[in-house]
Fold:
Amino acid sequence: MAINTANIKFFESTNSVSAINSLGGAITATELTAGLNGLFDQISSAESTAGDTEYRCIYVQNKSFGTGAEENDLISPALALITDATDPDTSIHFSIQDAVNVTAGTIANEDTAPAGAVWVTIGGGAQAFSADLTFAGNTNAGDFQAIWIRRTVINTTVAAATDSCTFSLTGETAA
Structure:
């Protein structure tokens, strides 16, 4: 039986500062179900006027477990943007940690960029899919991998924005 896509899950990371979650650290059991709206706060008028960049770390995990060997593996996984950032003044950037099953570093606060992140922009009107977002290897049953997300709001006179985007993991299966 092939991998069940419902078993590809996104989870928050452990590091929290001042009630802001997912600032790196180990994978948690808290599933990210509300997309970026559950991860980032609403953009305030002050942030919209001044411009703002914030960071979050999440994990993707292959929760498929079965008796067959590679039939539960996700081959050539890649992050795909399903719907773009809805506000043209907002862009979403992703950085995929190269190593599988490695805990991400932490950041001091949401305004601190994670060390060593290589960003790929797929928000703000950019492409809907990029081969640059391909993971380092297969995501085998039980594997997890860290993804850093950077949300940038450019300096604009527009009032506070409500913005979102939808992303998912794509790939192939052995069966």
In short: The two ends are 7 Å apart (CA to CA). The chain has one domain: 5-172. The CA atoms of residues 44 and 160 lie 5 Å apart.
